[in-house]
Amino acid sequence: MSKPEKVDLKILGRVRHLIPNNFIIERIKKHEVQKNTGLVKTIELRSSKRFTLEQNDKYDEFCDVLDSFTFGNDLEVIKQFDNFKETIKPKIAKGSTFGVVDGVESIDLNTLQTKKGSFRTIQDKTNLIVFWSSLVPKSRRALEQLNQMLKQNQDLKLQIKPVAISLDGDFNNLRSYFRDNKITEFEHYRFSLGWDSSNEFQKALELNYSPKIVVVGKDNYVVDVTTKSKKIENIINTYFKLAESVEESEDIQKPKDIIEKETYKQIKTTLIQTIANQLSQNNKLEKSDFFKLNLIKSHKISHDGTQELVERSQLHVAYDVSVQSEQAIVKLLNELKTQLGNNHIQIQKQLVKDTNGIVKKISDAFQDALKQNNKVVSDYTIKTESFNYVNEKGVFQQDVSQINKKGIQNLTFQEYQIIQSQVEPIFKKYQEEIDESDEEHDHDSEQQLDRDIVNNHINQLTDTLRSGLQLTVGQRFQAIQHYHKFGKDQQEVIEHKENEILIIFYWNNNKESDRLIPTIIKFLLANEDSFKDKVRFVALSQHRFDHYQHYFSKNEGIEEVIDFYFPTEENQADLVQYNVTQFPHFVVVNKIGNISVLSGQVEDLESLIEHKLEEGVDNLKQIVNLSEEKYNQIVQFLNSDALTNLAQLNNKRQFSLNITFIEFQCGENRTRLAPILNYTIREGKEKYFETYLKLLNKVNQFQVNKTTQKTFNLLFPGKACKLCQNELNEQTPQYYSPFSDAFYCVKCAEVFDAKAIGNNKLRVKDNLIFFNAPLVDKSVLNDIDVNRLGNNLKVKKGDPYSQRHAIDCNGCDNEIRGFRYIVLNCLPGKLTDMALVDFCQDCFNQIRQGGPHLEKIVKRTSMYGYNPSMLLLRIPFYMGYYEY
């Protein structure tokens, strides 16, 4: 009785006519044992050839038909054919035709402008094509290394055509990179859409990973594809010497082992019953060690379904292990040879790495640099205590965090630069070495463990070096060097002057900085006279001036209001000194030269400066490091009956209050900086706060960061809808535009034309405030933060727009689509920490109608002080989190 036909062979037989006749299909039975996964048995189908890019439509047809036959089968069968599709799909690999690159635009390095078109290789020349992205460090490094190689080898460059094709979706990133890096040995292109999963060429070359470096011969066949720039010169020279056509790398017609049937069975039995268990129980191998055993039996499947044996393999071995595990591997291999015999083991890959050795070399280099500069590393602790006023309970809640660090005491700016210049090339060298240790992706997780060990160690040493230089709030401002002013070449030292408030604004031409600059300009112009000789505002740029030429030509004249400075070198030490990890970043220095603010955001710069101007120099000089006795007195006061003075303000929407202590301890030496008092209070409510502050200041002087939140009140209800004149009253839900001072009924305000474009979709085009009448809590009409209203931004004609807001709803955690509703009340003026409170259309409907989920929405947002009477600002289109 004949055996029933296997399911996979049956399905293959039904689609075989859609596969070209010259494609050889193999059915491969594989027994695989890995250190981490144990024994896995699989059956694979593999094709000797692939559909070409020109045959992509035929490949799609094949996949559609195949999917119809696999539908409803076991997941293992579906997975088997998904993998088969991967072996037969169009792919640009060694030996294939390169084809045409569509969807690209050429880049002029002189003007940094683009021109749309396509790219073809030059038929009578060898082409070197680098696919890369400025956002991927490994990718940038490969391009820069190849550019340097060609610069030093002009003879080679004359024989080839070097081309770089970028995958950057945002041309601004690429433009910035080219301003700072001269990659002149290449002709440059860019995919107009960046990485595009629908681009057939990108899929065929698997450009979701970069870099990909392709050498294309004179006959337009791919000589090789690699990720390693260091291989390229050898690949090209070898091709020149051979001067013959490239064989297909994936042609599986090469002779394979067919060992005796009984021998194969014996190896398989030993592998399953003995070796798999031995490997799983082996505890001598490191976590990052890779060890794999394969046993393969393969048949060629003809068009009529008959099978021909093409491989019955020996036991294949592949490993990539640490030097510490080398003896364990030798022992393991000897055991395999004893069990199976020398002739039945075939080692296909053997790599021994020394990750711990690299870590030691890095540590030794770091210690040598310290020794040369007479510096040592010390252990120290940073303890931060925050006392946050909890409005609901009327008490302070204490939060303590402690960080144990290593640092270099009394490190000067110049010493930091010297040590950093000595160790950075060594760090970079070993990072590259471990990053490019093995090009194959058969054990990415193990490779990543090795990378993490090296990179984490480098990060620890870098942090140790930086921590010796970093300053914090309460410490003295240190002069900033190596910057030049806009329009001047001469370097200036940025120093603090007695009695002057200094504001350092670290910026870059990104969306976050762009959002702040117009506000800063308006603020500086409005206070030009009052700030003279009292406040200095300086903008320090992340990159050199060349990087921003387009920005300043587009925004001509802003340098007359803001003093822009540019670094003479990239990644300057002041970024470390003032803990600049993102842009924008603010440093505010008070009248006596102490740092008051180090932050990526300042809630209300105008209010903060107003308070700093009010501070007296004599009072500031009394603010000194804190003794243990004074510390205890302050803590005792925070828990005293004086809290009753805050009872009139026992409301989240009126104020927030925080007191912070920072303590440094190195050995027996302990320093507690002057305490920091941070508070935000609504305009007009300061008088209720003054009594408490006077009592607090009697205990000790504080560094104070005060924000007075400007507010406005609303009249409610409206009398009639501006458009239809229907009557409005206290019982009527209604909308209001604070920008045109007009009320609207719900029916008119919610007219939305889905077929129209941009703001024409709306009958009322302003951002509108919704009153959820009748209002149970009428206090929501008063003390509304001015900054909550935004700027009533509208979509400009021709600009892209979307109702997908890229924001999660606070009521349900779903992404906000359609209208976005921002709560206008809640916490006082928070642009940091908890930020805005947003609702989606569904949650808005629940709030308006008192739906079944309203209780859940209120519970989820109680931490923000939300209640359903609060006013909601309706935003139609997404322009940014704070842009509306």
UniProtKB/TrEMBL annotation:
InterPro entries linked: Thioredoxin-like_fold (IPR012336), Thioredoxin-like_sf (IPR036249), Thioredoxin_ResA/DsbE_sf (IPR050553), Znf_ZZ_sf (IPR043145)
Start and end residues of each Thioredoxin-like fold domain: 125-222, 500-595
Alphabetized UniProt keyword annotations: Metal-binding, Zinc, Zinc-finger
Keyword Mitochondrion: no
Annotated Pfam families: Thioredoxin_8 (PF13905)
Zinc is among the record's keywords: yes
GO molecular function: oxidoreductase activity; zinc ion binding
Alphabetical list of SUPFAM superfamilies matching this protein: RING/U-box (SSF57850), Thioredoxin-like (SSF52833)
Gene3D superfamilies: 3.30.60.90, Glutaredoxin
PANTHER family on file: CHROMOSOME UNDETERMINED SCAFFOLD_47, WHOLE GENOME SHOTGUN SEQUENCE (PTHR42852:SF18), THIOL:DISULFIDE INTERCHANGE PROTEIN DSBE (PTHR42852)
Protein name according to UniProt: Thioredoxin-like fold domain-containing protein
Native organism: Paramecium tetraurelia
Source organism phylogeny: Eukaryota, Sar, Alveolata, Ciliophora, Intramacronucleata
